[in-house]
Amino acid sequence: MSVLAAEAWRRLRTGKAMGALWVTALILAFTLLGPLLNPNGIEAIDWSHVASSPSLTGAHWFGTDRLGRDLFARTLEGTRVSLAVGLLASAVSLVFGIGYGAVAGYAGGRTDHLMMRIIETLSGLPLIFFVIFMTVLFGRNEYVLFGSIGAVGWLTMARIVRGQTMSVRRREFIEAAVVGGARSGRIIWRHIVPNVIGPVIAYATLTVPQIIMLESFLSFLGLGIQEPHASLGTLIAEGAGEMEAAPWMLLIPGAFLAALLVALNVLGDALRDALDTGDA
Amino acid sequence: MLAGAAAVSGETPVRDAGWLDGEMPLLRVEDLRVDFAARAAVAGVSFELNEGETLGLVGESGSGKSTLARAILRLVASRGRVWWRGEDLARLDGRALRRARRELQIVFQDPLASLDPRMTAAESIAEPLRLLESGPDPAAHAERVARMLARVGLTDGETARYPHQLSGGQCQRIGIARAMIGGPKLLICDEPVSSLDVSIQGQIVNLLLDLQRESGTAMLFISHNLAVVRQVSHRILVMYEGRIVESGSREQIFSAPVHPYTRALLAAVPSIP
Amino acid sequence: MPGSAATLAIDDLRVAFLPRGAREACRLVTAVRGVSLRVDPRECLGLVGESGSGKTQIFLAALGLLPPNSAATGRVRFQGEDLLGETSGRLNRVRGSRASMIFQDPMTSLTPHLKVGVQIAESLVCHEGVSWRDAERAALGMLERVSVPEAARRMRQYPHELSGGLRQRVTIGMSLICKPALLIADEPTTALDVTLQAQIIELLRSMRTEIGMSLVLISHDLAVVGQLAERIAVMYGGRIVECGPARQILHAPRHPYTAGLLECTPDLTRPVIGRMPTLGGQPPSAGTQIEGCAFAPRCPRAAERCRVERPPLETAAGCPESTVACHFPLTA
C-alpha cells in the first residue's frame, strides 16, 4: 500500500488540497492549543465586561456574550465539539456503511434486495423526529446526538459502498480469487474493501461537513449540545438573537463554521481525485 | 475423495464409476447449457479433456466460448453436467468445490483487469498459496513465490510493483504465475494473448507451453486466433452460436475442415501477401 | 512522387504528455520523438507499431485531438494548410469533412443515445449545410454503400442494437459521408473477429477507390496492414525505424525490428513446431530515456555503437525508395 499511498500523496500535494489541508490543520491546532493562551474559561462570567466587543488588546479577544462569558474560549470549545461530532459520526457511518454495503453488493440477488429495502425503510424516517424520539428515550446528551446522527449517516455510505462493490465485483480479479478457492468473506475483506476504500474515504471527508451542518442545525433548534457547553450551532443560534446589538457573536462562530466547511469540502474533492489510481 | 462422494446420495451417482477404472477423462462436459436473458449463450456442449492434453477452442466473440469456460468453473449458473476427475462439480459443497477449484485454474484475457490493482505482483501470486495450505509457513511461501516469479520471467524490481506500473505482457505473466502456483491439473486459458502485442504474444504462449511441459497440466486453450491455436493444441473444437460445430485433431481441422463455418474461419485469417 | 503536393505532410513531430499530478517539466513523458511522414493523394500508408510506440498519438496530434495535458511541436500540413496549433474552430472545418479518423472500438466512437441515421447525417448538416432531410437520404445511401444490410431499418436503431461488425461499418460510413481527402483508420479491425476483419479490410479497399481518398491504416499487425498498404512505415519507441514500399517491407525488411515483427506475425502457412516465434524483451514504454537505438536491447545484431549512438533515418542501401534507421541493416 505504501507505494500507492505515496503516489496518492504526490497527487494530493500538487493540487489545491494543500491550502484546504493547512486551513483544517490550523483550525484544529487552534482549538487544541488556544485554551493555553487564554486564561478565560467557557463558563466564567466577567461582570465587568458584558457583551463587550472584540479587542485584541483587552482581556476578551473575541469579545463576550450577553452573560459576560469569553467568546474566544466558547468559539474554540464550539469548534472542537462540532469537529468531534463530525469526525465521530463519520467514523461510525464509515464502519457500518462499508460492512453493510460491501456485503450487500457482493452477495447480490435476494440478500442484496432485502438489505437495500431495510436501508430504504430507515432513510424514510424523518431525522428530526428520530432525534426527538431518541432524546425523549435517553435524555439529552451528546452521545445520543452522536448515535442518532451516525445511525442516519451510514445509510448513504452503505449505498455508495454497495454501488462501488458491484462495479468491482464484475472485474476479473474477483473471479480469479473465486477460482483460487477464496471464501466470500475473504474476497470482501482482501479484494473488495481495499478497492472501494478510495472513493469511500473521499466521501467520508465530505460527510464530516455535512454532519457538522446537521449538528449545528439540531443545536440551533435546541436539540443538540446543551448549555453551558457550546457547539458552533448553539453559538450561532445565540449570536443570531443579538445580531443587531452584538454582531460579532454571530460573525465569529459563523466565520469558523464557513472556513471549516469550505476547507473540508475542498479536501474531500481533492482526496477523491488523488485516491483514484487511474487503473480501472 | 471417496468419503466426500459417499456423503451425498441421490438418484444419480455422484461419482462416475469409470473414474476408478482409469477410463474417465480429466474433465467431461455433458450437454452444458447457459442462458442469458432468454438467449442461449451455450446451447448444449459436450466434450472430454484428458490429462496432459491441450484442447483448442476456437470461435468468434459471442460464440459462447468464454461463457463455456466460466460455466465449467461454476462462475456462471448452468445446466448440464461437468464431471471433474469423476466428480460432478455441480454437486460439490462449498468446501469440496473450493478444493476442486484449486486444481482447475484460469488465465483471463485482460491481464490488467484480472489482477487486484491494490496488490503487488508478489502479493497477487502469494494469495492462492495462503488459501491452499492450512499451516502457513511464511519462509516456504516466500521462496515458492520467488521461484514462480523467476520462472515466469519477472525481475526482482518488478515483483514489488503494482499492475498499473507494469506492461500488459508482464501482467499476464503474473496471471499465469497465480494460476500455476498451486499446481493445477487443468489450466483454462481464455484468450490469453489476444490483448497483447504481436511481439509479446509468442513469449506468453511459449511460457504456457513450457510450464505445461514441466507440470503435465492439461489445457483448454480458448482463442479466436487460429494461428496460435494451431501451434499449441492437440485437438480442436470449433464453436459457433453456442454449439460445437466441428471437432477433430489439429491436422484434420486445418487440412481438411468439414463444416462451412470452419472453412470460412480459416479463409479469413490474413497472411502476409 | 516527390515535388507534388502531399495530402498530409508531417515534419519532425514531437508529442509529450505531463502525467496527472506532475507539475515539473522533467516528468514529461515523450510519446513521439520526432516523426516525419508524407501521405500522397490516393495513397494507402500503413503504420505499424506496438502499443506505446506512439503511432496513434501522431494523428491525434495532427487533428488536434490530444488531451489537454499534452503538447505537440513540429509541423503538420494538410493539403497545404498548417494544422498544428490551429484553433479548434478552424480544425473543426477540416475534421470530419476533409480528414476523418476511425478508432478501434466502434462502440465508444458512437454516441449511445442517438440513432445511427442521425449520427451519420449530422456531419453533412454541420459541414455542408445540407438540410436534415437530404442528409438522412445521403446517410441511407452511405449505409447501403458500406454494405449494412436492411439499411433503412438500421438508420432508426441505436448503436447498442448493432453488432460489433455493423457498428464499425457505421463508423466508417459516418467518416466517409463528407467524402474526405484523408481517412485515418486506427486499428479498425483489432476489436473484431477474423471473419469480420477480412470484410472490413475489403470495405476500406473498395471505399478508397470509390472516393479516391488517401488512407492511413494504423495497426500492430503487419498481416492486416499488408492487405491494403502501398507503403508501410514501422514505428518503434516513438520514432520511425523503417519506411518503404509494402513489398520491400514485407519481403525484404532492412531493420531487424521489422524482420522480427514479421517473424512473429501469426501465419497459417508456417509448419507446426509447437512453439511460437518470438521477439525477446519488451518494447520501451513512452517516457523512457533512450540513448542510442531504442531497439538495441532486443536486437540480435546490436553492437556497442547501437547503445550509444542513435542511428539516423537514411535511404536504405540498394533501395532508393526506402529509409531505415539502423547501423547494421539487413541486406536483401
Let me know the largest β-sheet of chain B.
6 strands, mixed
Choose one word for the global shape of chain B.
globular
Report the span from N to C terminus of chain B.
Answer: 56 Å
Number of helices of chain B: 12
Strand content of chain B: 15-25%
Question: What integer is the average pLDDT of chain C?
Answer: 88
The order of strands across the largest sheet of chain C is 6-7-8-3-9-10-12-11
Low-confidence stretches of chain C: none
| Rg calc of chain B | 19 Å
Backbone CA Rg of chain C: 21 Å
Detail the topology: elements first, then pairings.
The complex is a heterotrimer of chains A (280), B (273) and C (332).
Chain A: H1 2-14, H2 17-37, H3 71-107, H4 109-124, H5 127-138, H6 142-169, H7 172-179, H8 184-220, H9 232-241, H10 248-274
Chain B: H1 2-7, H2 17-20, E1 27-36, E2 39-49, E3 54-58, H3 65-72, E4 79-84, E5 87-88, H4 94-102, E6 104-107, H5 121-132, H6 138-151, H7 156-159, H8 168-180, E7 186-190, H9 198-215, E8 218-223, H10 226-232, E9 235-240, E10 243-249, H11 250-255, H12 260-268
Helix pairs in contact in B: 5-6, 5-8, 8-9
Chain C: E1 8-17, E2 29-39, E3 44-48, H1 55-62, E4 70-78, E5 81-82, H2 88-94, E6 99-102, H3 116-128, H4 132-145, H5 151-155, H6 164-176, E7 182-186, H7 194-211, E8 214-219, H8 222-228, E9 231-236, E10 239-245, H9 246-251, H10 256-264, H11 304-308, E11 314-316, E12 319-324
Parallel strand pairs in C: 3-8, 3-9, 6-7, 7-8
Antiparallel strand pairs in C: 1-2, 1-4, 4-5, 9-10, 10-12, 11-12
Describe the structure.
- The complex is a heterotrimer of chains A (280), B (273) and C (332).
- By secondary structure, chain A is mainly α.
- Chain A contains ten helices and no strands.
- The longest helix of chain A is centred in the N-terminal third of the chain and has 37 residues.
- In chain B, the strands form two sheets. Chain B has a six-stranded mixed β-sheet with strand order 6-7-8-3-9-10, with helices on both faces.
- The N terminus of chain B is likely disordered.
- Chain C is α/β, with parallel strands linked by helices.
- Chain C is globular, with a radius of gyration of 21 Å.
- Classes of the chains: A mainly alpha (280), B alpha/beta (273), C alpha/beta (332).
- Chains in contact: A-B, A-C, B-C.
- Chains B and C meet through helix 8, helix 9, helix 10 and helix 12 of B and helix 7, helix 8 and helix 10 of C.
